[in-house]
Amino acid sequence: MHVVVRLTDQPLYLLGRSAEQRVTLPPCLVGGARSTFHARLTTSASCSVGALLRPGAASLLFGVPAGELAESHTSLEHLWGAAAPRLRDELSGIGSAEGRLALFERRLGERLPLSTGLNPEVAALLQHMRNAPTVRDAVRSSGLSHRRFIADFRHAVGLAPKTYAQVRRFQSALRLMRSEPAAQLVDVALGAGYSDQSHFGREFLVLAGVTPAVYRQRAPAEANHLPVAP
Fold it and tell me: pTM here?
């Protein structure tokens, strides 16, 4: 999940099945946790300030569970009211990137309550996702019903535990592919925790929209933003 304030006025579009099907994204938005890719169309270079949010942040910053924001883009103004455009104006008035980040962090911090907390079993599963026991074991340890545990997890993260684990595994594969560009894809698959290269290829295609080989060939400058031809 991320929160972004765009400081340039050029429109940013979210594309549908075709380039003609487009939705204009708001200048201040929350991008919920996602289990697949989406395509955006930009008309020119733009400037923005943003942050990646940890599990549990949604209810603290926005007053809604992460699950209600998942798989979608939500206007920050719908969540914060007039404070969102006011923040954009404040950020636009600062000339340096460091100053903008400092103000942005301060405004986010002002919205956090003095005390916070997650279900401890959910927190443990998040902390040790790669080496943790299965979700079934975590549920049993929590003393909650399976449905309640999944609901608590989705409330904090926006995705169910299994889907969240798939996204984490995918991100691990991206890091390996970028840090070891000459590594064989089968080694990347095993290193990231996939059962085999076929498993890796199937999940990668769902999350990235391209195969691992195509992703590597295009060598994007940013791991989660893949330029595509119009």
Answer: 0.72
